[in-house]
Design a protein that fits this description.
Helix content: under 10%
Structural class: mainly beta
Number of helices: 1
Order of helices and strands: EEEEEEEEEEEEEEEEHEEEEEE
Distance between the termini: 21 Å
Shape: globular
Largest sheet: 4 strands, antiparallel
Strand order of the largest sheet: 1-2-3-4
Strand content: over 45%
Number of domains: 2
Number of strands: 22
Length: 275
C-alpha cells in the first residue's frame, strides 16, 4: 500500500484495486472506482488547483518491466476529478514523453510534480509535471542524476530537490527549479544545525532516514528506520531559519523494531470538504 503526501488537506492511499481519499479534518473517506490494470503496476498521485478548487487523482499504469531495474514505461494515464457528478476515470490520450514514474510527488501552485526515469535503460533522472487545470504533462530536465536519498521539496514557492552533499558531513545541497520550460536550476547549500548534524554523524546513521515536508522553508524531518529507546521519534530541521526541534516518543523498547513514516506533513490544511 502506498500513501501520497497530504495535498491541501486530503490524502490518497491504498492499492490500485481500492484507492481511498481521506480527509483527516472530517475523518471521512471515499473509495474510488477500481482501476483495471491486470498485473501491471500503478502509480497514483493527487493534485489540487487553487484557482478552480478542484482535486484530481492521477493513475499511471506502467508496462511490464523489460530491464533488470524492474522499471516499466508509462502506458496508460487516467484522471478522476473529485466532487463531480460523474466521478469516473477519464483516459488521457495526449502524447507524453516516455518515462517510468516514481512514487514521490509534490503539488505546488496547481502543478503536480513527480520523479521519473528516462532514457533507453530508464536510468536517467527526470521530473514530470502535470498541470492540474489543463491536464498537460511536461518533462523537466534535471541538472544531474539525483541520488537515491534525494527528495522533492518546496523552497520559496518553487520546486526543489534536496540531498546530502556528503552524507556524513552535515552539508545539505538544494537544487531549485527557476525555469521549468528551459530546465534552469540554481543551487544552494546549507549546514545542518548541530542537533541534526550530530544525528547524521552518529553510529546509528544507518538507522536514520530523512524526508521533506510541504513547508515553504525546505523543512527536513529525520525519522528512524527502527523504533528504539536510543532514537528520537523525529528531528525537525528548518534549513532557511537554521532551527531544529527534537521529538521523543516514550515507551520505545530496547529491541530494534521496524518503523516507517510513509507520509510526513507539518503544514496540514484544515479542509471541511465533505467526501
Amino acid at each position: 500500500m502506498t500513501i501520497s503526501p497530504s495535498v491541501h488537506g486530503l490524502i490518497c492511499y491504498g492499492p490500485p484495486s481500492s484507492l481511498v481519499i481521506y480527509n483527516p479534518c472530517t475523518r471521512r473517506s471515499i473509495t474510488l472506482p477500481k482501476i483495471k490494470a491486470g498485473r501491471r503496476a500503478i502509480n497514483q498521485y493527487i493534485g489540487y488547483d487553487p484557482l478552480d478548487g478542484n482535486y484530481k487523482v492521477v493513475c499511471i499504469t506502467r508496462g511490464m518491466p523489460m530491464l533488470r531495474n524492474r522499471r516499466g514505461l508509462a502506458e496508460e494515464i487516467q484522471v478522476l476529478t473529485l466532487g463531480t457528478r460523474d466521478s469516473s476515470w477519464r483516459m488521457i490520450h495526449d502524447i507524453i514523453p516516455p518515462h517510468s514514474p516514481v512514487s514521490e510527488e509534490l503539488c505546488i501552485n496547481g502543478v503536480l510534480y513527480y520523479r521519473a526515469f528516462i532514457g533507453t535503460k530508464l536510468n536517467e533522472s527526470a521530473i514530470m509535471s502535470f498541470d492540474v487545470r489543463s491536464e498537460k504533462f511536461d518533462l523537466i530536465k534535471v541538472p544531474c542524476n539525483f541520488r537515491s536519498f534525494s527528495k522533492l521539496a518546496k523552497y520559496e514557492g518553487k520546486l526543489a530537490v534536496i540531498f546530502y552533499e556528503k552524507k556524513t558531513s552535515g552539508i545539505i545541497g538544494l537544487w531549485i527549479l527557476e525555469d521549468a520550460s528551459n530546465g534552469e536550476w540554481s543551487k544552494k547549500t546549507f549546514a545542518l544545525p548541530n542537533l541534526a548534524a550530530s544525528s547524521t554523524n552518529s553510529r546509528i546513521l544507518k538507522l536514520q532516514k530523512f524526508r521533506t515536508t510541504d513547508a515553504d522553508t525546505c523543512e527536513i524531518i529525520f525519522t528512524p528506520s527502527y523504533a528504539h529507546s536510543s532514537l528520537s521519534s523525529a528531528i525537525y530541521c528548518d534549513l532557511k531559519e537554521n532551527k531544529v526541534r527534537k521529538f521523543v516518543k516514550e515507551g520505545w523498547t530496547e529491541n530494534y523494531l521496524p518503523c516507517n513514516a510513509d507520509s510526513v506533513s507539518s503544514t496540514q490544511v484544515e479542509n471541511v470538504m465533505f467526501l
